[in-house]
Amino acid sequence: MIKDIIKYGEAEITYKNKKILSEKPKLKNLFWETTLRCNANCKHCGSRAGENIKLEDELTTEEIKKTLQDIANKYDAREILINVTGGEPLLRQDLFEVMKFANNLGYYWGMTTNGILISDEIIEKMKKTRMSTISISLDGLKKSHDEFRQVQGSYAKIIENIKKLKKANFLNYLQVTTVVNKSNINELEALYNEIQALQINSWRILNMEPIGRTADNQELLLSGNEYKTFLNFIKEKRKKSKFDITYGCSHFLGMKYEKEVRNHMFFCIAGFITASILYNGDIYVCPSVERRKELVQGNIRTDDFVHVWENEFKWFRNLDKLKCKECENCQDWKYCLGGSLHNWDFDNKIQKLCLNKILEGDGANE
To answer: What is the mean pLDDT of residues 258-275?
Structure first.
């Protein structure tokens, strides 16, 4: 009872922070989607990277440099983390040239990568450009990972590369990310032992979401009981693990799991403190959100990023934007606010996946 009271108190504080940021947003996280090219073909990819690529649409070196300079002219770059992502960012030949430029402006930066292309040469470039964080995908043990990412031999290569990064000892934060699905949910304990031996800082565990390429692989989506299984796994491991184990930022989980599987209450920060520059220059929110023309706020080739950040994004900052009939009677509405934006069905105006509902239910598939 006391624990629930404390949680609701923290949820109220989080809600108040959302209201403040809806009126006075502050850019803290800037994603740069460097490319949609990829050397893997992951079964869950939200952006369907590697499909229908138009290289001529990618930003040039000078275009992205100019925008980063413009932002640094108006904001303190030291307060902004640039997260380079893709596709696979290491496929961009000018990546470290751009990030050296960004770091010299004061930005901190990190990378989300499948980890396959990391080499001794790449690690030296990471060090010279002062990359501070990295998140590398590891989706199960050898067989399940290689099949899920559809790159044979990738598991062994990634393990080797994580060890190299650890030995190089220059990162502030080394994270492994795992997407839980039916092919690997029974491997979590064994994978925990593998990851523990790597001596990383953090293991980020997500569920496979009903977006992007998942439409072609829906048989891998978890059942209600399986969601409970893997969240309970996180909850128990957090009590004894020497490294941080956390559920990702997605989904309001209800008070039974909020603050039990991650360090903070749920808050979809897209448009409040997070924005993206997509591969083609579009100014967007989180790059995981469904690409829709009406959601694009501008393009750095024609618009000033800071002006767009400060004067557009209005729909994203409306706290009631995702309210639907199913949400009307939910007692935790203001702590959820419709859940994560990347799971919103824009055509039917409803969440594709409501974990709060599933976790309170009988475990049936949703």
So the answer is: 95
